[in-house]
Amino acid sequence: MMVFLVPLPVLLAVVFALSVIGKLRAADRGSAAFDALRIPVRHPDAAAKALIAFETVVALGLVVTSGIVYVAFTLAAVALTAGLLIVVVRAHRLGVTDDCGCFGDLLPARIGPRLIVRNVALTVSALAAFGAAFFMWGIAGVRVGLPDILAYEPWAEVALWTLAGSLPIAVTTWSIARAAVPAAPASPPDARGAGAVVLPASGEVLDLLAAGARARIVVFVSPGCHACETALSSIRAVHEPLDSVVDLFIVQRAVSGSTGIESAHALPRTARFALDIGGSLGAQLDIGVGTPVAALIGTDGFQAGPLAVGSEEIAQLVASILALAEAAPS
Question: What's the pTM?
């Protein structure tokens, strides 16, 4: 069990640190994750801050403490990972497919089987770390905790080897997380009329894939989507110069049995909100179920360039459009 005393706490500390950094980078500090996971919270902002603080303390405790305090922090890691696994499984059973917001924008992952596999792996790692720490400290009487292990010469070589052994675990976890949000291949629409959406504000039916006088950006969002709010916040900051170049549409999928006809997010002032009835527009553009995703539609009604998947790619798409507009001769 000694080999678990170095790689697993390092792995878990890195995971919690990435979670904290991702949430701090997000515009809402991770509070939208509660909506994505369908967790009823009266004060989501305060709860998100408390979670960030707890993850920070656990990440530090796993690498700087020793003895019974270290054992307690490994148990806290079990509580964090197992708790997240439980709520993700619950959300999946409810049919939720949104980005969970667990790592902010660093590791976007849709709720589904792949995310569950990732969280099972993390929970097993935390259980192994706690089991090894409890056994070696409480039963074998061996010093535990990175400071004590690395301070003793006999353990230096073992520590280095086991630390190296943690890299495949970290790479595997990273790969699972990244694979959870596959980028959909871009394919130009062939059929006319398949891009019809409804504008709830006016009741108008509009074909976003029809030829028009101006190009348009179509941003697909969904309720409870943490990354969607981040993407929209970046667009809100530049909505006026963007409006001088393209029309902006924020599209939310409307499926059978859905009664929501209003946007679940604060919209840029120049944007028009639309409902994709039955997901036909999303299917035509091969959007899939993940959000946020943006498509640039040219004046000919065809998709221009690849889809922008995730808040970072959407921000890059918007920045590129504005940069080209500024560089164009007047």
Answer: 0.55
